[in-house]
UniProtKB/TrEMBL annotation:
It comes from Neogobius melanostomus (round goby). This is Glycerophosphodiester phosphodiesterase domain containing 5b. GO terms for molecular function: glycerophosphodiester phosphodiesterase activity. Gene3D superfamilies: Phosphatidylinositol (PI) phosphodiesterase. Coiled coil: none annotated. Residues 228-487 form the GP-PDE domain.
Amino acid sequence: MVKHQPLQVYERQLCLSCITGIYGCRWKRYQRSQDDTTKWELLWSFVLLFTFGLLLLWSYFWWEAHNDYSEYNWFLYNQSGEWRDGTAPILATTAAGFTYIAFLMVLALCHVALGQQLNLHWLHKMGVMAALLTTVVGVISVNQTWSYEWDVVPISLQATGPFLHIGAIAAVTALSWIVAGQVARANKTIFQVLVILLYFSALFALYTVPLYITSPCIMDPSNLKQRPDVIGHQGAATLAPENTMRSFQRALQMNVTGLETDVTISSDGVPFLMHDNGLRRTTDVQKVFPERQWDDASLFNWTDLQQLNTGHWFLKDNPFGTVQTLSFREKQLIGNQSVCSLEQLLKLASFNKCTVVFKLRRPPPEHPRHYSWINDTLQTVLKSGILQSLVFWTPEEYREEVRQMAPGFVQSSLVKAESPQTLQREGISAIFLRYNQANTREIRDFSQQNINLTLYTVNEPWLYSVLWCSGVPSVSSEHIISLLCLQKPDEYTVLWVSVDLVSLAIVIAIFILQKYRSSGIHSYNPEQIMLSAAVRRTSRDVNVMKEKLIFSGETKTTPKWTSISPVGKR
């Protein structure tokens, strides 16, 4: 009787098969290899790593640019004439691309950790190139059309830097398992020393990063200045249609200290509130005056403007995603809004004793009020009964004449001057700038020269916190916020030192563990049962390599050996 017994038993390695199969379509055992990765595949690994880093920056940029999504959508509206959320497709493609590339990065790291040869499948190579080229095109487009928005990255790092540092330490600490494994398996001492030096140099450099982090939000609370005044930009534009009475009423309910708006002159000389040059985005002019829907807003008289509804578009387009949070009564009030005049706003502000800031747009040359626009606006302000000290006058034209007729106005500027002293010489006591146009030093200089600085538009809590800690006296916002993220210097020092020590302890423990695991008896690896010579000779040509199984048999008289070792090609 012949008895067969296998000398080598193979265990199913489903996890390894999935890793190599998804990454390089190497589902079979004989398709895998522990040989060194080829230079060509190493190049693709670097391309994958670069794409991951670029997409990480791109994703972070759009995450922090959330403060300015409405600004970007308005830019697209000026280009196309149609209002739409242009950030939605960008965010969707960015999230999909980053998830895909991050998944490939994890698979590549798993290959390295398991000692498997990297061999990215050609379909994935096409996907990586598509993600890389798409991101590069996006970066170039932003540089050409919205280049100043890149300033949001260094500004946001003042708030997120301390937390990103902790996340980076966690990631590099996790990589120590792979690094320690490579060092333990390496045969060359030079390679081991080089890898250890590079890894620990990067690790210790990361440990000392907090010494160079300068964040205004890391400060002693006793040094914190007064909470910045909040000016409602176009009212509370996220809760009600911009530049409507309901929007300003909602802003006042949230205790703003001022209201900011945009003023246009009608054809019969009535100043009214409108941000756009046209009426299509925020009114139903297409329905009421279809033949005039493309006309400039200033070419309508006040009687015609009062026939337009300025609330339906807000309920329909839901530009800030807040309509679903409104009550039925609130939606009714919004749906009945009409074009608001400057006089209505001034009376509301006067009653609530809050300041008013408006940007005045000059009508086109063919407009009947093209030359009297300043006087028409000034007369409206003076007749409204509002205290002159509550009015921030921003138009540069005829400023001296306005100062003589209304000496109590707070003369303001929308243009950044060379220095605060220049503004003082011109009699300017307030300035309104975009939040990226003033750094911490300039904020301090404005304060020392008694120039009231207001930064716009501030809608995110992190940005409000950074500006508050920087000493900004006033901000303009569409979404009224008051959150402050503040950390004491001593507390932050204890935090990052503790994180560094824990990370170092984990890294040392991992290196010791990997060394201990590699110092034992090396068992025979079933992955190596292949025709090595054939693999080295034509590793890309041999697609099928059947495993050799050796069996032994015992009989009462004569032993019998049976072997099956065919090698075939497709």
